[in-house]
Amino acid sequence: MLKGQKTSIRPMEDDDIDTMYQWYNDQEVNLWSSGAWPLNTLQSKDQLAVKFLDGSPDMYRYAILDESDLLIGSIGFKDVNMPGRSATLYVVIGDKTYWGKGYGTDALITFSRFLFAQWNFHRISLDTWDGNVRAIRAYEKVGFKLEGRQREARFVLGNYHDAILMGLLREEFFSLHGKL
């Protein structure tokens, strides 16, 4: 288990699926995590179990816990490019009572350190949509930098929005947060 200052990160477990299903069916959680509501809500518990527990060989998903080991979100990575030592990261704080309190930032710092130190990645990237200002600020606190925009690439609540592409290099991260 990975330990941060506020969060712990562990593999997903069978008991997590009911909570994940609630989050996937919450319009507000989906809006801010991906801008894809209601598309994400059209998955059954069985489909989520396959996605989060069995998954594809190139998608790694983990649970984010609070100080009391309560499941509050998920984090993971995909699109691993071993020759380029890179991957794409995602994070969702599904329990809305933890929004705006630094749990997502702490999980990102903890998980990024793991990816840079243990997986030996050189860079990690992520993306969101331009209306997700809270997430962009959290990403910037971790050290992610704006790398690009895809104009009107996201369709959110009936309107087109730009996709925001951000990246973080290993040395940038360690200079901000230290190696340990």
Automatic annotation (TrEMBL):
Matching PROSITE patterns: GNAT
InterPro entries named among the record's database cross-references: Acyl_CoA_acyltransferase, GNAT_dom
A Pfam family hit: Acetyltransf_3
Keyword presence, rRNA-binding: no
Alphabetical keyword list: Transferase
Domain of life, source organism: Bacteria
GO molecular function: acyltransferase activity, transferring groups other than amino-acyl groups
Domain N-acetyltransferase: 7-171
SUPFAM superfamilies documented for this protein: Acyl-CoA N-acyltransferases (Nat)
Record-linked CDD domains: NAT_SF
Protein name: N-acetyltransferase
Lineage of the species this protein comes from: Bacteria, Bacillati, Bacillota, Clostridia, Eubacteriales
